[in-house]
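Q: For a teaching session next week I want to show students how multiple molecules come together into a single three-dimensional assembly. I've collected the sequence lines for a complex. Could you give me the predicted structure tokens for the whole thing so I can convert them for display?
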Amino acid sequence: DAGVIQSPRHEVTEMGQEVTLRCKPISGHDYLFWYRQTMMRGLELLIYFNNNVPIDDSGMPEDRFSAKMPNASFSTLKIQPSEPRDSAVYFCASSPDTDTQYFGPGTRLTVL
Amino acid sequence: GQNIDQPTEMTATEGAIVQINCTYQTSGFNGLFWYQQHAGEAPTFLSYNVLDGLEEKGRFSSFLSRSKGYSYLLLKELQMKDSASYLCAVRDRGDSWGKLQFGAGTQVVVTP
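A: Of course. Below is the structure for the complete assembly, covering every listed component.
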């Protein structure tokens, strides 16, 4: 299995631009998670889905952030408009249950 | 939510043993996890404890005491490749099933 796939791996954009991060979970995994990691705040859960349905989005920082999972093999995390404080590494993870999460390689986002 | 406390950094010699402590406060404990994260890479799952006691997996062991709100990760026969950040994460019974709260991580430096 290829593992969790994320794209792009690196993204540099300017403040105010829309950013879309993409994730393909491991086939057969029913759970998909979006995390953000910064030096200041560590690793934080933003939102997670079960069978394509959002279960907990309490970690989504504000209305500028939105996530979708249109089918079992694809999810997006969108930031519109982006701000410099959104600069972080964004990880997608998937899981067959909720005990073992498999992380993707991450997207390093820089907002100038 | 949870307060999760772990040391910032530990240094040990190749071949030695290192114990990384994690203390937590939670209103309803429902599992403790350890993840390893090498610099610039994604976290990878190491262990999961939900009952008191020691779980052993090769050179790595994890211990849990629910009454004390305490866990440790024991790394034996240290190798240079064990240099990484080790993240303690807790699941609270009051949270949605997939929600993990991560500690800030302990950076382990293995020296020759």
